[in-house]
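Researcher:
Attend to C-alpha cell order:
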Amino acid sequence: MNGESIEKIKNIIETFNEDNYTKEEINNILSIFLELLNNGHIRAAEKINNQWVVNLWVKKGILLLFKYSALTDMSLDSFAFFDKDRLKLKDIKLEDGVRVVPGGSSIRTGCYIAKGVICMPPMYINIGSYIDEGTMIDSHALVGTCAQIGKNVHISAAAQIGGVLEPIGANPVIVEDNVMIGGNCGIYEGVIIKKNAIIGTGVILNSSTKVYDIPNETVLPFPIVIPENAVVVQGSRTIDKPFAKEHGLSISTPIIVKYRDSKSDAKTELESILR
C-alpha cells in the first residue's frame, strides 16, 4: 500500500466519527487498518530524526478494533477460546520465514513479525507489536500491546515486555537493535532500551524506577532511557529512614555497572550460532 493510501486511513482514524459511516464502511476501514498492522506498513511508534515518536492514530485505531468487535466463541475441539471476533490469531505462512516452535505459543493478529524471528514455546505476542528481523522470543516470554522490538534482540525465558495501549499518548516499551533481555526481566511503562544494551537476569524497569549509572556517576533522568551499550544488573540501595536502618533494609534498584566491550560482546555470540 502506498503512502497516499496510508495517509487516507490515518486521516479517517484521526477524525473518526461513527455517525459518518455505515457499518459496512467501518468494517472496511478496520480491515484495511488491520492489514497495515500485520504487514508492518504502520506501527505504534517509529524513530524520526533519531527520536522515538508515538503514532497516536495507530493506537486509536487499535482501540477502535476492540470497540467494533464482538466477543465470540473461537474454541477448537476441547480448547475453550473466547475473544473479539476481529482479533483472531495471526495468519503466518511458511514463506513468511518465521519459526514458531510447537508448544502453546500464541500470536495475535495486528502485529508485525519479520522474517527470521524465532518464537519458542510457550510465548505470547499481543496486537500492535512490531518484532524486527532475527529476534528471538524465548519460552514463557510476553511481548505486550504496541511494544516495539528491534533486530537481533533476544528476549529470554519468562521476560515480560509490557504493553502500553492507554493512555493513548503514552510511549510503548521500545527495545532497539541487538539488545539482550535476560531471563525474568520486566520492562514496563514506556521504558526505552537503546541498541546493544544488555539487561541482566531479573532486572525490573518501569517509569518510576531509579537507575544508577556507576561509570558516569549519575542517576538516569525520567522517563527512563537505557543508554546504548549499557550493561544493567539488578542491585540494591539502602533506605535512610530510621526504622529501615534499624532493620538493615534496602530496596532493589537497577544499576549500570559498565558499558559493553569486546568481552561482553563475546558472551552474546552464541545467539548468532543458535540462529
Q: What stands out?
A: Helices lie at 3-14, 23-38, 56-67, 242-246, 262-267, 269-274.
